[in-house]
Amino acid sequence: MDRLIEKKKWTPKKIILLAGTVVGVLLLSLLLSTFGKSRLNVEGERMIIAEVKYSTFHEFIPVTGIVQPVSTIYLDLQEGGRVDELYAEDGAVLKKGDPILRLTNTDLELSLITQETSVYNLLTQMQIAQNNARQNTIAKLNQVVDVENELIEAKRVYDLNKKLYATNVIAEQDFKQSENRYNYVVEKQKMVKEIMQQDSIASVQQLAQAEQSYKGAQNGLTLMRRKFADLTVRAPVDGQLTSLFAEIGQSKNKGERIGQVDVLSGFKVRVDIDEHYINRIYTGLEGQYRQGDSIYTLVIKKVYTQVSGGRFAVDMFFEGKVPAGIRRGQSLQIRIALSDETEALIIPRGGFYQQTGGNWIFKLSKDGRKAYRIPIRIGRQNPDHYEVLEGLEAGDKVVVNSYENYGDIQELVIK
Fold it and tell me: Angle 106-166/172-229 helices, nearest 10 degrees?
């Protein structure tokens, strides 16, 4: 009778095969753990290591400004002509009204003489008209007096004859004659008065027109004299004459710019800023300029929103004290504050940002022998620091030098 033989589950062969498999997996895991992270040996002396810390953070941008006068008045010629005389040189400090140069313009001189002659003629005509009006008025008044006297006499004769005729002393013909005479003089008086009134109105109108013509010509003469006076160019304000383009004998056209006068009562600083910041720049924003141990505050008073060459301009004025010895055309290095001072987690600026864009950084291990690549998030920045929003804590140490030679290395071994 056959006997059933139980089959063995764990034969020596199976055990050896299983053990080999486990060892292979372990070796593969070890190799992957060893070579999965790329390493690079670096010398610590060539690295810039910084500590992450909480500190005061002030967001600002460095800009360059050019000192300019607080105001500039341009000298544009009101009248053209030939430069006949120079009274001041480029760079001279002038008071308002000081002469700068004198032009000659024969056409304008002839026009002035013609206008003066016209005014004098109109004045003479007006005086003649006034004299004629007075004489005419006197003559008319004499006529009125004569007529009134004639009317009195006619009325006396008429009243007398009326009584005599009523008593049959005189004939009817004599009475009618005196009556007609009286009525005629009454009408004559009315007519003389009406004529006198009309002549008076006409005389008034004539004199008014003559006076208006004279005043118009006189105003024209005043304007012409002012134009003639403009041939002498004078300083419009107290200031310094700059950029004078005029030589004796030169011919200048009306409206031509011959120079400018800079007001010396103060200075402004014209600053060009990258258009990237145009939405964050506004009037009232402050900046600082350092000269030696002193810090001076400037305030933006005007923003020019027109962008040219990727930049826009602002005008800044000193708030309070002004640096001694400041002069036109001087360059100033200014820091414009974009935010107030706040407490933030910060790291120093470094070359790493060019390769990482602020998305990751090498963080040192506790013993300082290695540095591992970790993700971070950068917020605000200024010329000195970056604000860290995520990925680091105060006290961490990071590598901030350039990563140009690190490639895709995941781990740095510091020697």
Answer: 170
